[in-house]
Every structure is written in C-alpha cells, then in structure tokens.
Amino acid sequence: MSIFFYSLFSNIVLKRIILSFLILVLILLVIQYSRTPDLYWRFNLFEIGITSMLLIVYALIFLIENFKTAKHNYLYFCNGLIIYLASSLSIFLSGNTDWVIFTEPFVLDLWFFNSLFYILYQFLIYKEWKDLNHKEVSRESDPVDTFDDPGKV
Fold first, then answer.
1. Average pLDDT of the residues in 121-129
2. 100: three-class secondary structure by DSSP
3. How confident is the model at residue 153 (pLDDT cuts 50, 70, 90)?
4. Does an H or E element contain 108, and which?
5. How far apart, in whole angstroms, are the C-alpha atoms of residue 25 and residue 21?
6. First-to-last C-alpha distance (Å) of the chain
7. Residues 3, 48, 80, 61: what is their CA dihedral angle, to the nearest 10 degrees?
C-alpha cells in the first residue's frame, strides 16, 4: 500500500517520507520476526499497529492533498481504508479479549463490527472502481461534433 500511495503523491518530499517509512517499517519487522519467529503464529500487535497507523496517516494526507488540488480520485477508497483500518486497529489492539456488547440473550461480539466495516470497505472499493471505470469510458466516448459532417447525423 505504501507503493500505491507513493505513486499517487506528486510532492517529492511526501514521496521520500513514504519511502523512508516503508524501509524503516520493513527493517523493523524483519528484525522482529527474525528474533521471534513464533510471531508468525500469533497476533503481532506491533505489526498490526505500525502498518495500520501508517496507512491511515497516508490516506489522511492523501485526502487533504486531494482536496487542495480539487482532484477527486480515490476518495471512496481512502475513506473506506480509513474507516476500516481505524475500526480494525482498535479491535485488534484490544487483543484477544472476550469483549461482548450487550448481555444475554442478545450477544454481539466485537469481531462482528470488524466484518461489517470490512464489507463497507469492499463496497467503497467497488464504488471507486465504478467511478474510475465510468470516467474512463466517458473519456473514450466524448461526443464528436456531428454538425461538421452532414453525413453523421
């Protein structure tokens, strides 16, 4: 995802910051997994926290930059990413708790919310795909001035 945001930004300083954080996070994760390989089989809260927070920051910066330039590409995607990762991050960082909302007989697990936000995120990705596809199709089929050629009416 860092490379995706790297390709979206036009500011050279932001691109260098993204590359720096990408390299830093990769080095930290390689060191962590090489020292404790059993993390492959458990929730690695450091990995979840650092990668999710970084993507949320990238998406927020992209939205701010996008509003400044009045280009509205990838708005649905970034909003969905922020909503999903913020909710998912809060659920994952709470750990493997048995938190339950409400009481018997109606029990609602926190992981249910994670699934709902994931479905919302997928819907926003689909909406973004439809919008980008619609823009591409409308660009290809721009109306040609038919009044220049009387045979094209």
1. 91
2. strand
3. very low
4. strand 108-109
5. 6
6. 48
7. -50
Overall residue count recorded for the chain in this entry: 153
Residues 80-116 as b or e (16 or more Cβ within 10 Å = b): bbbbbbebbbebbeeeeeeeeeeeeeeeeebeeebee
Digit-coded pLDDT (tens) for 3-54? 999 998 888 999 999 999 999 999 999 999 999 988 888 878 889 889 999 9
Among 73, 79, 80, CA closest to 120: 80
- Tokens (6 digits) for 111: 């992981």
Q: In which band, very low, low, confident or very high, does the pLDDT at 151 lie, cut at 50, 70 and 90?
A: low
| All residues at 6 or more sequence positions from 128 whose CB lies less than 8 Å from its CB, including other chains | 74, 75, 76, 77, 80
Q: How far is CA 35 from CA 16, 47, 88, 103, in A?
A: 29, 14, 26, 42
